[in-house]
């Protein structure tokens, strides 16, 4: 993107007012998107975003400035702007950029080799399958996105790192209607690779699944309320781990004392059968990368092992505040954000329990097959999540689908009440928002059982 000579000059300029660390981040990102309603293309867009940001640290103080102009003059001016937040004199010299880290692996089918006709064909395939599922499907909204995200980050410690992160995702949302009522279903798989992802993502399956959820929930009674056992299926069921637990393990919360998990390293915070991992090294996954947005290698971080808290997720600034090793977790949406500690691919590790036995021995309760959105208070871990597709279990057998279910509780309590973990972990894709913008993350788990959670619903006894 630029020469090392210019980068070194920028890093040096950023240290002129007393900073002890400087960093230059640059990106060149190309994005394509197509949106379709009922088989008709609504719009197709191409966007390219180029820019740079300069960060200066002094102890635990941080200053950040950015620019869309990547000329040498503009980068030097941006470094001066960041440095102006400090009022000292120069104390440190920037090292030569001699530690080279290169993660620029080209996708097998680059998005530049794919025309919009191929993108549209995928969406029409998913739309057709959804509409064919039932006459009650009245609307299908389908979207496609691909992104080729190229970054370079270098710093005054002499590190120069480059990474290339292709990713693509499709969304199919369906509406089912009958007797004046409507229910929705949505499925949105994605992978961290080029267009070859659609050798693994079957659009007919995506469309049918989205339609099935909507039609099933359309004919479901309201979910009963109560405190009951809940079985949560794999994949996007891991959103509870992500939101109600691991956000509380990020340095952005822990370093400021804003987490229920502060000062608990080495303590039991979960059931002994629980092991949870954040792994940015998983090849081809939605949240993966070779290096983070601070130039550090991605890592497999064991956060909880057999119920014991082993690690937080920590970026460079968080490490200074917490005296904790950097974990390769510094991430940002783009050059307009300074990096903070963030998740990548976060999941419960496989257990040894039989998935059907979980339901057969739970008595009366809820099987949450697909989770929806929700809200969390990271300071307390209190959460409220909707269940997109749920089934009521009576005497250990699935009785009927139920709609309108919500799961209410605290992440720390749920972790301790997990009494079964299945043998087959899979993941679901999402975009996670925090201080450093919106980034791609995977959530995942095998099927798990929680001995009791408060279930909200409007229904009576079934």
Number of strands: 23
Largest beta-sheet characterization? 8 strands, mixed
Helical coverage, percent range: 10-25%
Q: In percent terms, what proportion of residues is strand?
A: 35-45%
What class do helices, strands and sheet pairing give?
A: alpha+beta
The rough form would be described as: globular
What is the CA–CA distance across the termini?
Answer: 63 Å
Q: Give me the number of helical elements.
A: 9
Low-confidence stretches: none
Radius of gyration, whole Å: 24 Å
- Give the mean pLDDT: 96
Descriptive overview:
- The protein has 462 residues and is of the alpha+beta class.
- It has 9 helices and 23 strands.
- It has helices at 4-14, 72-83, 116-133, 203-218, 239-244, 251-254, 316-322, 355-360, 411-416; strands at residues 21-37, 40-58, 61-67, 99-103, 137-155, 159-178, 181-187, 190-191, 226-232, 276-279, 300-305, 308-309, 330-331, 340-341, 345-348, 365-377, 382-394, 397-402, 406-410, 418-421, 426-434, 437-445, 448-456.
- Strands 1, 2, 3, 4, 5, 6, 7 and 8 form an 8-stranded mixed sheet that branches. The protein has a 6-stranded mixed sheet with strand order 12-11-10-15-22-21.
- Strand 1 and strand 2 form a beta hairpin.
- Helix 3 (116-133) runs parallel beside helix 4.
- The chain is globular, with a radius of gyration of 24 Å.
- The termini are far apart.
- 52% of the residues are buried.
- The model has no long low-confidence stretch (mean pLDDT 96).
Please summarize what this structure is.
This protein is of the alpha+beta class. Helices cover 19% and strands 41% of the residues. Strands 1, 2, 3, 4, 5, 6, 7 and 8 form an eight-stranded mixed beta sheet that branches. It has a six-stranded mixed beta sheet with strand order 12-11-10-15-22-21.
């Amino acid at each position: 993107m630029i020469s090392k000579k210019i980068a070194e000059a920028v890093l040096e300029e950023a240290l002129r007012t007393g900073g002890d660390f400087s960093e230059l981040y640059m990106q060149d990102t190309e994005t394509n998107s197509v949106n379709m309603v009922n088989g008709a293309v609504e719009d197709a867009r191409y966007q390219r975003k180029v820019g740079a940001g300069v960060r200066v640290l002094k102890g635990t103080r941080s200053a950040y400035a950015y620019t869309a102009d990547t000329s040498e003059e503009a980068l030097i001016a941006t470094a001066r702007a960041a440095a102006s937040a400090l009022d000292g004199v120069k104390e440190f010299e920037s090292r030569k950029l001699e530690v080279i880290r290169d993660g620029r692996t080209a996708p097998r089918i680059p998005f530049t080799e794919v025309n919009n006709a191929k993108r549209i064909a995928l969406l029409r395939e998913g739309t057709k399958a959804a509409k064919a599922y039932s006459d009650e499907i009245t609307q299908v909204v389908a979207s496609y996105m691909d992104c080729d995200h190229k970054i370079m980050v270098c710093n005054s410690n002499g590190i120069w790192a480059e990474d290339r992160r292709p990713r693509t995702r499709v969304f199919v949302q369906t509406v089912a209607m009958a007797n004046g009522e409507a229910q929705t279903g949505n499925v949105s798989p994605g992978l961290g690779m080029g267009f070859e992802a659609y050798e693994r993502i079957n659009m007919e399956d995506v469309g049918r699944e989205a339609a099935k959820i909507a039609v099933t929930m359309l004919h479901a009674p309201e979910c009963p309320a109560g405190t009951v056992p809940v079985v949560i299926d794999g994949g996007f069921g891991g959103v509870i781990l992500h939101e109600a637990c691991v956000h509380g393990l990020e340095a952005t919360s822990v370093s400021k004392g804003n987490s229920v998990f502060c000062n608990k390293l080495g303590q039991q915070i979960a059931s002994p059968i629980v092991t949870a991992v954040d792994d940015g090294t998983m090849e081809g996954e939605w949240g993966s990368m070779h290096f983070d947005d601070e130039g550090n290698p991605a890592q497999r971080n064991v956060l909880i092992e057999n119920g014991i808290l082993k690690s937080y997720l920590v970026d460079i600034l968080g490490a200074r505040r917490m005296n904790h090793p950097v974990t390769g977790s510094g991430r940002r949406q783009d050059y307009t954000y300074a990096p903070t500690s963030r998740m990548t691919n976060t999941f419960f590790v496989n257990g040894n329990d039989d998935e059907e036995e979980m339901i057969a021995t739970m008595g009366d309760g809820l099987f949450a097959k697909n989770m929806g959105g929700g809200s969390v208070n990271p300071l307390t871990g209190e959460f409220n999540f909707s269940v997109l597709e749920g089934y009521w279990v009576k005497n250990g057998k699935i009785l009927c689908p139920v709609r309108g279910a919500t799961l209410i509780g605290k992440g720390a309590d749920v972790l301790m009440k997990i009494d079964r973990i299945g043998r087959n972990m899979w993941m679901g894709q999402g975009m996670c928002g925090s201080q450093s913008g919106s980034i791609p993350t995977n959530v995942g788990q095998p099927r798990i059982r929680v001995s009791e959670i408060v279930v909200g619903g409007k229904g009576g006894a079934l």
